[in-house]
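We store amino acids, tokens; thus:
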Amino acid sequence: MNDSTTSASEYFDYIIVGAGTAGCLLANRLSANPDYRVLLIEAGGRDNYHWIHIPVGYLYCIDNPRTDWRFRTEPSPGLNGRTLIYPRGKTLGGCSSINGMLYIRGQRRDYNHWAEVTGDDAWRWDNCLPDFMRHEDHYRLDAGGDADDHHAHFHGHGGEWRVEHQRLKWQVLEDFAAAAVQAGIPRTRDFNRGDNEGVDYFEVNQRAGWRWNTSKAFLRRAAKRPNLTVWHSTQVLGLKIKPSADVQPRCSGVRIARPGKGETVVMASKEVILSAGSIGSPQLLQLSGIGPADLLNQHDIPVVVDLPGVGENLQDHLQIRSIYKVHGANTLNTMAASLIGKAKIGLEYLLKRSGPMSMAPSQLCAFTRSSDDYDYANIQYHVQPLSLDAFGQPLHDFPAITASVCNLNPTSRGTVRIRSRDPRDAPAIAPNYLSTPEDRKVAADSLRVTRRIAEQPAFARYQPEEYKPGVQFQTDDELARLAGDIGTTIFHPVGTTRMGRADDDMAVVDSHLRVRGVKGLRVVDAGVMPVITSGNTNSPTLMIAEKAAGWILAGE
């Protein structure tokens, strides 16, 4: 990587803040033009920690200061006063280096709704699909694969972003899938065609049993270009805004702190692009005087632009984890219970790159409806052949599976707000889960759907026992309260710098992701989503970056 520190390197055409999912793709696309000098800045270190690359290593990367910002949420009334860990990647590759590697795009209706709220047809599904396909490398289209016209129409091949099938099967999950079909959920071969209703195994962002993060996919080769400079372990402290009395202020650079270099300013002649994520980007905007005036005044930060939507509209998927004890089933609880079992698991991965060490956090997926009130899939399952009390806790000493279900379209909205003028202070993150009657009703109904699946004949052989939340809880109020007790994030924060029309006072960026009221500044990350996608959010963020790169290069 080009780590030049000469004085000439302090001036660039484009500065990208955050080498995560969006930032790595942007750095690749923008630096492909040799006429542009591009600087990519990452607060975390290199992605050379071995647990980043072994799929099961997410267990050791989340809440690890080497790879994670280690945020915590504020106490949430909807979670009965609980706080949650809130992982965000802090390394090259960002969240793609510590996430679940699950390749899900969302639903056609998500993107068509974005087009409506922004007034820009560029965000319609049919116009987003080419951006998904542009960087995709789907295994079904490999030479000799089982691709058909369907996959060729919806998927790409030869791009940087590898999509593969999982390298494992579990009989207990096969039977849970059969039970889901008996409960009315159709079997599917592809969750990514615009209507994701159905049940099947997740496809994953891996290559031959290794995690495939965006640093490997987009940055590794691009970083050899002489016009791309990558500074890791470098924190951006704020934006440099050039005021103007008669025209819009302009973002001309960033203030940074580099190890051994102290604080300095780096300048951008064309644009500064924030790709610091749904937490980091609104934090930097607020620290720089772009945000709700009341909040900025509270911290004695001069108001550059009063944008009340900065840090508002936080949305996330809350998963409700049901645990079922099973009898006569092989699960990870039993496989990993002994040193011999663990040794076998390690040997299988060493020799074949398969088995439990190649596992994504969830293996089986299902999209369905929480009730007949919906004519589209509004809940999603992440099903695992294991159980534990909470993330980071040991596996239970009995065979069990976990069927986590989340509301895909929550109506609850939260906030991200700075606590002080110090950029090193973590912001206050308040997701406000289960704060609306609609979300509490979906939570209760989704637990009933889980029970209906577990009661089907295909799963009866395991004599399933509901360990959590417990069959004694039946009413809407009881189940909603229990959801607050056991619910936890799937790590999908979006919406805090959302895009919208010019007359939308809460929109932070326009439909081309330019920050309102400031020239030379864009946000390109999951924060720009006006409404959360119906599924995992990593690959939709890549699509957003792909689309934005085209606009930036075209000067739009």
Q: What stands out?
A: Confidence is low (pLDDT under 50) at residues 1-9. Residues 437-454 form the longest helix (18 residues). The radius of gyration is 23 Å. The domain at 7-553 is CATH 3.50.50.60 (FAD/NAD(P)-binding domain).
